[in-house]
Amino acid sequence: DTFRAGAVAQLEQWADRAGVDCFGPSTDATSPSSVCYGALDKAIQQKYDTLLVDTSGRLSNNEPLTEELKKMKRVIQKRLSVTSTTNPDGKQVPDLNTNVPHETLLVLDAAQGRMALDSAKIWHEELGLTGLILTKLDGSARGGSVVAVSRELGLPVKLIGVGEGMEDLRDFDPESF
Questions:
Q1: What is the pLDDT of residues 89-115, one digit of tens each?
Q2: Cis before 101? omega within 30
Q3: Minimal CA–CA distance to 173: which of 120, 162, 164, 165?
Q4: Which of 15, 64, 95, 106 is most buried by its number of CB atoms within 10 A?
Q5: Whole-prediction pTM value?
Q6: Using alpha carbons only, what angle is made at residue 80 by residues 74 and 82, rounded to the nearest 5 degrees?
């Protein structure tokens, strides 16, 4: 998230609390895709098992954001390509590794209404979502709109947020919901 004021500092604080590394924009690499590429390089060099990429907002009607997210997905696929082909000019080019990213999760606020389904449809069409994270379940909202999103798009709710602490992001258990 290179656009929201304070986003990098917030992510750095969370990474510090969790005891993990955080890779943010440098002075010469501020586009989200270039930050993503740099983070991938670091993850590969350090032999990390997991890389989380946090992006800005969830406004599906923001076309530049949608295009940037699609570009980031292509960057991940290209950077993690394991094979290459020869193009008509005789140049070796990497095949896109369509098996990555392994997860593309949309975070939805439990208090969102009908807009959640409309946005999720667009994001799913554009990015191929693999699941949902439902946040703000610590208040009075119960996330009914997210259940509709999950059913209509066939996307599982993977995690729920029930507070603001690290331990408050939990695996989703449909039985207790």
A1: 888 776 666 677 888 999 888 777 777
A2: yes
A3: 162
A4: 106
A5: 0.80
A6: 120
